[in-house]
Backbone:
């Protein structure tokens, strides 16, 4: 347990919260440094526990003050932040990610998804759970690429890669899943951008979703 990740969990106390914390506490890779139920206790917790690796914070503590997360990151610049939210898409997702959030996940997420999200973030990646990511993409204005009415043809391998990206896997993790190497995955990503004319991989995923490829 000495080398396990130290977590501060900040959310209003509920039976559901206490239940998921009890399940996560069984994970050998995690240790709860502190559990706080009030917003005013978060900064003292961060200040007195500098070795903390991850802050899991409920969106309710952030929604009234867009600058609060940036303040927390100034106090503990090394810390990773996972935001818990309701299922409904909120435009705050994008602004919070820009302010320093490393991940965004729904309160209703089960233990397996939470464990994956936490490990993914602690490995230096960002994570948005699939349910929220789909809502983010759906909220964006549609953009037409190529000739009107002409669908982009994705190969089976390209579809596999896009699905894994959508699920939050890194390039290295995708390579492992598909029994190939990271360089090959990067080449596929570059090819997808060229094929669609999209500015980024998120837009490629949106195009695939619009065509029903990833449904």
Residues:
């Amino acid at each position: 347990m000495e080398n396990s990740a130290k977590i501060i969990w900040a959310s209003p106390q509920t039976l559901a919260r206490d239940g998921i914390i009890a399940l996560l506490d069984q994970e050998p890779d995690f240790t709860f440094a502190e559990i706080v139920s009030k917003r005013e206790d978060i900064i003292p917790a961060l200040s007195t526990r500098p070795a903390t690796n991850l802050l899991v914070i409920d969106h309710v503590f952030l929604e009234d003050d867009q600058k609060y997360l940036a303040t927390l990151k100034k106090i503990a610049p090394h810390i990773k932040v996972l935001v818990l939210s309701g299922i409904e898409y909120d435009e705050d997702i994008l602004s919070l990610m820009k302010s320093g959030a490393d991940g965004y996940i729904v309160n209703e997420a089960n233990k397996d998804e939470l464990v994956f999200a936490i490990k993914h973030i602690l490995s230096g990646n960002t994570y948005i759970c699939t349910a929220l990511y789909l809502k983010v993409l759906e909220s964006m204005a549609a953009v037409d690429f190529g000739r009107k009415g002409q669908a982009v043809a994705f190969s089976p391998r390209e579809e596999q890669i896009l699905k894994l990206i959508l699920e939050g896997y890194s390039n290295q993790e995708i390579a492992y899943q598909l029994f190939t190497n990271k360089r090959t995955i990067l080449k596929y990503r570059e090819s997808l951008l060229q094929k669609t004319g999209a500015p980024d991989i998120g837009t490629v995923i949106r195009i695939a979703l619009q065509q029903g490829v990833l449904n």
